[in-house]
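seq:
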Amino acid sequence: MSAAIDAFLAMLAAERGAAANTLSAYRRDLEGAEEVAGDLLAASRDELARLTGAWAHLAPASVARKVSALRQFYGFCIDDGLRDDDPSTVLPRPQARRPLPRILGHEEVERLLRTAEDEAAGERAAEVRMLALLELLYGSGLRASELVSMPVGAVPRDAPFLTVTGKGGQQRMVPVSRRAQAALSRWMAVRPGGSDCLFPSRTGHISRVRLFQLVRALAARAGIDPAKVSPHVLRHAFATHLLEGGADLRVLQTLLGHADIATTQIYTHVDAARLVALVNERHPLASRARGS
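struct:
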C-alpha cells in the first residue's frame, strides 16, 4: 500500500472518526484500484480510466462505492498538496438505486422469538445468549457490530437504556424493551466471567460472522428460510415495524444512529410499498378488476 493511501486512511480515522470496518472497506477499494492503475498518487487520467473496464462486471452500487473512495482520496491529496489535479473525474458515476431493505413480517419475527424462548427454557448458556442477542437485534435495532462489541458496562442496572457506540465512535442511548431486559438478566446470570465483553468468546467477543451464523441457524429451526434472515434484516424489521406503529421518523433516526435522516427515509418507501400492495389487494375496485 502506498504511503498516500496510508495517510488518507489515517486522516479518516483521526478527523472523521471512521470505524474499523469503514477503513477496511476503503483500503480494499484503493488497493484494488492500485492493482489496475498503478500507484494512485502518480496515476494519470488514462491509467485511472483502465478501472472502468476492470469494473465492467460489477453492480452499479459497487462501482459507485469504489468511485467515491477514489474521489475522496484525490480530494485529500489535493488538500494536502500531494498533487494538483483530480484524475478521478475520468471515472463513471453510476446512479446506484438504493434497494429496499429486506424485512420480516410480524408473524415470522414472532416465530423466531418463540423458538429462541423455548430453547432457552433450560437456562443453558448458549440458548440464553441466543435469546438475548435476538431480543436486542429486534427490540433495539442494533447493528451487528454494535451488538457483538458491546461491553458489560453498557448495560445499566436500573435504567432501561443501553449505551451504544456506533459508526464513527458516536455514542447514543438506546431504549431496551422489558422483554430484552428480562433476556439480558437471564444472560447475565449464566454468562461466563473473566471478560469485559457482554458476549465474550475465546478471542474477545463473538464476531459478526458468528452472529450471522447463529441467527440463520435459529431461522432454520423456526421453519423460516435462512436466506431471508440476518442480523441486519432484524434491524430493518425493528425500524419498519416501529414506523408502521406510528413512530416519528426523527425518533427512528435517533434510535438507529443514522447521521443523515435521508438514510432513515428508506423505511418510508418500505411502508409505502406495503400500502400500495394493500390497496391493490383489498380495494373493492381491485377485486372487481380481478373478476373481469
